[in-house]
Amino acid sequence: MIQLNNPSYYNNRELSWLAFNERVLQEALDPRNPLLEKLKFLAIFSSNLDEFFMVRVAGLQDQVKVGFNKPENKAGMTPKQQLREIALKNHQLVNLQYDTLRKILYPKLQKEHVHFLKVRELNDSQREALETYFDEHIFPVLTPMAIDAYRPFPMLLNKSINLAVVLEDPTKETDSEQRMRTAIVQLPAMLERFVQLPENGGLRKLLLLEDIIGFFIGKLFHGYEVKSTTVFRITRNADMTIHEEGARDLLKEIEEELKKRKWGAAVRLEVQKDGLDPVILDYLMRELEVHPKDVYEIDGFLDLTVFFSFYKKMAPIWEHLVYEGKISQLPAGMENGKAIFAKIADEDVFLHHPYESFEPVVEFISEAADDPDVLAIKQTLYRVSGDSPVIKALKRAAENGKQVTVLVELKARFDEENNVHWAKELEKAGCHVIYGMTHLKTHSKITLVVRKKQGRIERFVHLGTGNYNDQTAKIYTDMSLFTSKKEIGIDATNFFNYLSGYTEKPEFHYLSVAPFSIRKDILHLIDSEIRYEKKYGNGHIVAKMNSLTDKIIIMKLYEASRAGVKIDLIVRGICCLRPGIPGVSDNIRVRSIVGRLLEHSRVYYFHQNGKEKTFLSSADMMTRNLNNRIEILFPVLDKRVKGQVWEILELGLKDNVKARAQDAEGNYGYVRRMEGQAVIDSQMELFERAYQVAEDEE
Fold it and tell me: pTM of the entire structure?
């Protein structure tokens, strides 16, 4: 008798995430990617890892500290076991990351006449020029922090790079221990990390800020002899605890928690091997209370997220070392000058970003702001860009006298500060700003425009899988839909009224809303597919999402597989389901596409004996999304749009360039291309298709 809750049938959530980050790292090794893009993937890998430690590892460490030792409910690993396996895998990945940089990417940079140098490698005249630069530009900004009986170990900022300096006081005649002193110097965040020497014959010579400071560190400690300089970086627990029940003003509560985030408990210590003082390492571990497994001795410089700024600076100069530029196209029928409301009134409009432009979404809100017939705009905002045209349009709408209601999610992780700012700006402009429901994040993506035309009320709705962010819409793949269907307009009205006022949970015509019904509706659809498989033998489910962790959904998919339903999953990140287990998941295939663009769409397709049902959603099949967030799952009702979505899914299932397949042990490998099979990079193919449609429209 097969027990579907057997821990061996599941991947641990955290280890599955590390497997995803390994796929990101593989892009830095892919010979098809240009050099600057490879460096950017190293930065993405590091940035991902920072967040992983600040949230996921921090949470596990907290569990261990309070003595919680219960196994998690899928793979059955205790917090201690998870931390041990995370450390083992992650040390391997970080070593691979730096091996990639040193052995593969540095030589390629040198061929492009870029050299990363140490100060000790410079000649006398170069060092003299650098010393002048240090004295004039760096020294005035530095603050040495002595550590002694009167000055305890300083509270160092999360993710900051620091130099621990061991000094000897030659005036003391006592034993050597009493002659030794320790100080900390923090790298100023406002200074450029890479310092460039004057070019010589086209050579670009770069030095690291911390290496320069370390070389001239003695200038900060006159009268003392520098014995060692150790470069280190700490990562802190950045998870926030919001006491919503007791918070009279959620805005202020969030602002207070943001201040604390900078000073959470240390969860990781990175030290640079070059110049590492073992005594200082022991000292830092004691002071920061960091376990040895969370210490990373780095054979290279710390914090490779610096390659984000390097990429931004060099990309305009090195066009041959970045991806060929791709331009988002306007969708078919949107460029003929017809007003957007008239177009949506005629038919549903489907957008696939970034292959198709995000501009119609901005235009939709902007036109609503200026249209004298528009009475009200209601919108949810989770993450927006720094100079958001969406925010500008909403403010303008309020100033034009329209009823503007904006739900700003203040608890959007690592965007809290940004969202607090926008909430205040919107309120100043006269918008009615709400913050959602207690203990639930509002992650849904929906806009409702109410318009009065010739005495009749019209509702126009935009629903999507991604954020109202014009910048990430250029690099995230997302789908969205404009519709004027009456029932969906009524659903949207009821949805916003439920969030903003006191009313019972409404019954929706078409929308499915978490935490109330999405899981139940998905389970019902899978059950239905099982019945069709048993009766007609044609059961088929295709689902595309960022992550799959919900055990109830996974067990139901296992049940469907055992019944013979063919299941194709495209899961970019975490996937706790294991495919190909005999008698359990034989009929399930799992693939992950990691490439130039970040796959972010959530699509759920059910064959239903030919009565195909297709849904788009803001929600992944994760327990947190289904239990703790306000999410929307919405159907694709237009037959033409259904066909478009299916073509996208089908192409993803055929990708043999950037797709990796998961095996029954939870391991991933590139999808093998069969002899004679066409090369299919789904992302590039979708750009080509968008170009072709645009050409055909001309």
Answer: 0.94
